[in-house]
Amino acid sequence: MSSEDVERLLIQFQDENGEILGSPFDVPLDITPDKLQLVCNALLQKISYSPVPLAFFVHGEVEVVSSLESCVKALGVETEQVLPVVYQPQAVFRVRAVARCTSTLQGHSEAVISVAFSPTGKYLASGSGDTTVRFWDLTTETPQHTSRGHTHWVLSIAWSPDGKKLASGCKNSQICLWDPVTGAQMGKTLTGHTKWITWLCWEPLHLNPECRYLASSSKDGSIRIWDTVLGRCEKILTGHTQSVTCVKWGGDGLLYTSSQDRTVKVWRAKDGVQCRTLQGHAHWVNTLALSTDYVLRTGAFEPATATVNPQDLTGSLEELKERALERYNKVRGSAPERLVSGSDDFTLFLWNPAQDKKPLARMTGHSALVNEVLFSPDTRLFASASFDKSIKIWDGRTGKYLTSLRGHVASVYQIAWSADSRLLVSGSSDSTLKVWDIKSGKLNMDLPGHADEVYAVDWSPDGQRVASGGKDKCLRIWRR
Amino acid sequence: DHHERKRKKESREAHERSHKAKKLIGLKAKLYHKQRYAEKIQMKKTIKMHEERKTKKKNDEKTPEGAVPAYLLDREGQSRAKVLSNMIKQKRKEKAGKWEVPLPKVRAQGETEVLKVIRTGKRQKKAWKRMVTKVCFVGDGFTRKPPKYERFIRPMGLRFKKAHVTHPELKATFCLPILGVKKNPSSPLYTSLGVITKGTVVEVNVSELGLVTQGGKVIWGKYAQVTNNPENDGCINAVLLV
């Protein structure tokens, strides 16, 4: 039988916010995503000049994978009316999955507790239980500097958004600043907290290009904002009755903190006034994730412009601020920042903290406590890693459950997204790392090699390397 | 014989020494006292060293081993061997029908303690009525039986609706309404009457806490075990069974 009489359908392209693109199109039912992409790009040519890879969702829900026909059949949509098809631009660059361990960096004499790449991906820093912070040279994959100064385990490290400073907090409640180029300590040790530091977060680049202020949260229930240039504490935010587990500095001048007293508090960064308390969790709130996390972390660096040899950011402070602000506005879009909190009560809450006290959605499904939540760099999805050996992927806008990634045989400790939001790497207590493909929801790569639990994982913003550290005192770098 | 004499001589030394110290005078005394002072210093030093060995000091210099990241700090990590043995133990308990409660053994309350005899009748001879002397819980829709026929009297003053329930992990206490008495360990009669004594398992309304099941349904009832003697304190303190 000839297939000339294929049914035709009217579709209307819409972008994620609902704005209509062009006029309704008459397309055959067996059209494939590639052809849809050509059509859509042709319509978008008025706006950009290079073809952008797109993903299409019928009614914004079901993705068009093989052809439009399968989606229409699955949804049972009427073919008489105009069908809205939402197009989502994917990242132009593709990050390749890491496949092999290129080096095992030994040097730490105790477990490696935290690992972080600088915003451009040029430097790698790791904090450990032997009280040192080590900097590693990525081109030769050898140790570069060993920074001594802490007197107890280095619990958290954070790079400033311009990549010029590294802040590290230890179990003796001290914070030190380090220069990655020389490995020397900058300024004096910041003391003030009475118990150990749980999280460090810098002020975003687009709010202050000289990267001056740093927020730290501690077990003593307070959050301190430090002026790193003068080396003193600017503000102390009290209000939590128990340990503060996470602090995030949002791009709109608000600070979000989560605590073991089951609440999440929203503060104004300018004067340290508490705006809102978000209640709802039934047990400790372990972790927070902001939709704009990744863009705040990378600042003025655009992962699409990454080169094989990572470079420092160039440009005057004004230029950097402008670039960071532009990137931030693009990722944020018109909606305010969204916040996800994961807790020991096995659930997650999606909040709109700038506006509402009530959560947008409550996500259940995990059977053990949620250890880490992370938004994807394009803010469309977020992933939650839990002690029940699974990672769940949820829709970033509505909180709808999408898929579960199973494969680990022990608690999943930390996760990291690749810069194009297509891959996710997870480190677990069973000493393996696994790279997952988000589109198919399947395991892409299994990376065994560590001898003991993997405590920290990070994917460099230029997408080339993954670094992981764990209880076996080694830092491993994985590449393609 | 020699050993006996040696032993006795040594034990006499202490007396002779003290006699010398008291009775010596002049230059000999000065020399003796100086020598004795030096000896005493050495003795005190050795005693102090022995004392130090016994007391445990906080080791300030070395950083402790077992470094863990911040998210694992407040949690007790279970060693792998323990996990396996715990699993086996739990399976055995489930088979035996024993459940873990904070107070496994409670003193059983006898009938004479819990129920007081009420005499009725024209000559106060009939003794078939009983009054409950412990705190009890009656449901919402409770109405007394006609007084002439009710055998067990539960006084209004001893009826409680709320309990102070502590969450064992959060270490926070909430005042939650009681839904019902699940089991009183002393007797099933008390369970049916709703008598609350120490060790009773009660069901409480936990919708205030905001717990949710995996499927997304809100948990609104949980068991808690009473930890005090409510008739003595005037309030019911319980610990939540998670």
Categorize the overall geometry of chain A. Answer: globular
Helix content of chain A: under 10%
CATH topology of the domain at 111-240 in chain B: Thrombin, subunit H
User: Given the structure, what is the number of helices of chain A?
Assistant: 4
What is the CATH superfamily classification of the largest domain in chain A?
YVTN repeat-like/Quinoprotein amine dehydrogenase
Q: In the CATH hierarchy, what is the architecture of the domain at 111-240 in chain B at level 2?
A: Beta Barrel
CATH architecture of the largest domain in chain A, by name, is: 7 Propeller
Please state the average pLDDT score of chain A. Answer: 87
Radius of gyration of chain B: 35 Å
> What is the CATH class designation of the domain at 111-240 in chain B?
Mainly Beta
- If interface size is counted as residues with C-beta under 8 Å from the partner's C-beta, which chains form the largest one? A-B, 42 and 21 residues
**CATH class wording of the largest domain in chain A:** Mainly Beta
Task: Give a structural overview.
The complex is a heterodimer of chains A (480) and B (242). Chain A is mainly beta and 480 residues long. Helices cover 9% and strands 44% of the residues of chain A. Chain A folds into two domains: 8-89, Roll (Ubiquitin-like (UB roll)); 100-479, YVTN repeat-like/Quinoprotein amine dehydrogenase (Methylamine Dehydrogenase, Chain H, 7 Propeller), CATH 2.130.10.10. Chain A contains four helices and 37 strands. In chain A, the strands form nine sheets. In chain A, strands 2-1-5-3-4 form a five-stranded mixed sheet. A four-stranded antiparallel sheet of chain A has the order 6-37-36-35, with no helix packed on it. In chain A, a hairpin with a 5-residue loop joins strand 27 (370-375) and strand 28 (381-386). The longest helix of chain A has 16 residues, at 317-332. Chain B is elongated. By secondary structure, chain B is α+β, with helices and mostly antiparallel strands. Chain B has a domain at 111-240: Beta Barrel (Thrombin, subunit H). The mean pLDDT of chain B is 88. The longest helix of chain B has 28 residues, at 27-54. Chain B contains six helices and eight strands, in the order ααααβββββαββαβ. Chain B: It is found in: Nucleus, Nucleolus. Chain B: It holds the Pfam family Ribosomal_S8e. Chain B: Involved in the biogenesis of the 60S ribosomal subunit. May play a part in the quality control of pre-60S particles. Chain B: Residues 1-21, 44-64 are annotated as: Disordered.
